[in-house]
Amino acid sequence: MSVTIEIRDTDTKQFINDLADNLKINVEEENNEHCLRLPSKLGSGFIKGTCFENGVGVLEFDCQLKKELVLAYKKGLVHPLKLIFNRESPIVHRFDEIDGEHEIQRLENAILSSTPHNNHIFSFPPNQPICVYSLEINRKLFEDKISEFLPEMNTDLMDLFRDLNGTQLFYHKSHYSLEIAKFMEEFTECDLTDFMKTVYQEGKAYEILSHQLQQYLDDLNGSGEHKILRQATLSKIEKAAEIIHDELNRMDNIVSLAKRVGLNQTTLQLGFKKLYNVSVNEYIRNYRIEKTKEYLENTDLNITEISYKVGINSRSYLSKLFKEKYNITPKEYHTQVKNGHSK
């Protein structure tokens, strides 16, 4: 089952109010922020809109839904230019009355412009974590500001930003950079208040816009000529994870690991945070404990033998880590497995 809502979005406040009216949820307002928190009958989490000057706004989806949510943008309106960054589960976009869907995967971003006739339709999946950051630009209100960004634009981007009446469809998708990921995190985790928060977050929104324009031009170079680190970096991070899996019992230090995959230590750490939500050391430790559990379940190895296979030379330290995660010692868990009580 799904819930379909027709939405207006001349600014983020209107978007949130329309959504709240349809879902019958109260809106929490604070300065330039408008937030609705999902009741348990609909899911969990929140959807928030933040308005800035010159027609710039940000929509944040950080929630999990019990039913598929379909947002059909109202026909006949000039919708804002959208720069969408997907941080979690895939979402689906299409233009109304045009064949074909666009799936925007985790760590991907899309630049989108609809027409008053071919409006946006977005589908958000149920029972999956949704984390989307959308930079919304009302091009009529942004017109006086555009001159600041002209040096970062080519002809296509200039035409896109100067299409004040939304006469042309535009769709471009790629993987967003680690720099943009960092700016989004700084935006969402800002703990300032009132005026200082507004100024800080507005600055981050413009940093994201500037980097996205640079990234679009970088995309035109082709995947083999990218100068901005994105999927190539993530592939190297995934390679680092493979090395950890394959060489767990003789894992070198982080500096050596970073060098092997062609990254510096800072980029490797940032990449693991973005891709796996943990540091490199936490990833190694978690994988060692998971492998310990696997060995206890599927082999006859004793605890000492397992500790060497997972690269921990101290049996007592392994037991400590295992108990911290599973609230049971390896010996106790092994006994449960032998007696057929493990899950």
Automatic annotation (TrEMBL):
Q: What's in the keyword line of the UniProt record?
A: DNA-binding, Transcription, Transcription regulation
Which SMART domains does the record match to this protein? HTH_ARAC
Q: Does the keyword Transcription apply?
A: yes
Coiled-coil stretches: none
Residue span(s) of domain HTH araC/xylS-type: 238-336
Q: Would you indicate the residue range of the signal peptide?
A: none
Q: Which SUPFAM superfamilies match?
A: Homeodomain-like
Please give the superkingdom of this protein's source.
Bacteria
Extract the PANTHER family matched here: REGULATORY PROTEIN PCHR (PTHR47893:SF1)
- Full protein name: Helix-turn-helix transcriptional regulator
The lineage is: Bacteria, Pseudomonadati, Bacteroidota, Flavobacteriia, Flavobacteriales
